[in-house]
């Protein structure tokens, strides 16, 4: 059995009775976010430092706004704020820092998270008791009693977190549950290597099979369009409703892309009889050897910070484990510089972003596929000698995401250079 988590979306059946209470919590989460944002601005102006989540929690735990929500819910708001600043600080110079949550003089309905100590679950009647903060408690109740329903095939148990999310029309519950699921036997004994790249979202090389590329053009287009839509409609006092709608739509599309991609990759691994997947560990990719921000160029920086590598690998891990496939993180050092045919290590061999030409053996190949082969060989004791002589390194198969069907479909091969 594999222990993992699943998130289920539930409809609140007594929405009219609990909407006002959830509105209060959502507004309070926005207020606390703004208080934390103001504190960060002060620290930033004073000494140029951005406080981490530990400092935010320590400094604001006695603030009046902190007591509007259950303590764990308030902690989660400050954690999200710190995560947002960390992500912004690591990004390129064109990105805007996280702003205040306001629309005119109003506070929007922010997502509110309850952890285990703030939840009481009645499985028999399909009810959740969600604790309020001290400031929002009234004499009649100190909790919100939300009744919910999910799909008939979903069994809600072992809730780790409950999130109240405003979907634009009403509140809904996102329930994070700990589950134990049966694990299948591995479909074979082969290996695969995945290179997470910038030009392509990923390249994968199968032991004894043909490598494949998965461009992220659709995701890049969505990010460019909806980010522009968000900033063009942002008001002076914070994001407008149109900007918030664009942000939510982009998030949904990214989620769908990543889930579909990880599911497709696992399906291909099952078809190829893969037992273990090697994935390049991208820890520190945004930094150089001195710890400074690494410059990939204007276009490269924009693409790099748009990819959610960690999120994709988490999705890949649990989907692969369900099928009995192990995901192994390996060191990426020199995998992009090393020729997978003769082993020569040379920076200049990577002629362009997607082209690798070995100056020793004169092999020409796709650079991302070359990296995927080298990553796979880090976990393969005896790599077969004939798996790279069939020309597919230079012209791998390409799978494109089709918006209409919501699936990855193969692109026809053409007579073109890599």
Mean pLDDT: 82
Radius of gyration, taken over Cα atoms and rounded to an integer in Å: 24 Å
| Number of H- or I-type helical stretches | 8
pLDDT below 50 for ≥5 consecutive residues: which ranges?
298-306, 414-418
Please estimate the helix content.
25-40%
Biggest sheet architecture: 7 strands, antiparallel
| Spatial shape | globular
Please give the number of β-strands. Answer: 17
Number of domains: 2
Q: Which percent range describes the beta-strand content?
A: 15-25%
Structural class label: alpha+beta
Strand order of the largest sheet: 2-6-7-1-5-4-3
Describe this structure in words.
By secondary structure, the protein is of the alpha+beta class. The chain folds into 2 domains: 2-181, no CATH class; 190-411, no CATH class. The protein contains 8 helices and 17 strands. The chain has a 7-stranded antiparallel beta sheet. A hairpin with a 6-residue loop joins strand 14 (355-357) and strand 15. Helix 1 (15-47) crosses helix 3 (71-89), helix 4 runs antiparallel to helix 5 (241-271) and helix 5 packs across helix 7 (309-322). The longest helix is centred in the N-terminal third of the chain and has 33 residues, at 15-47. It is globular. The two termini are 43 Å apart. The model is unreliable at 298-306 and 414-418 (pLDDT under 50).
What can be said about this structure in brief?
The chain is of the alpha+beta class.
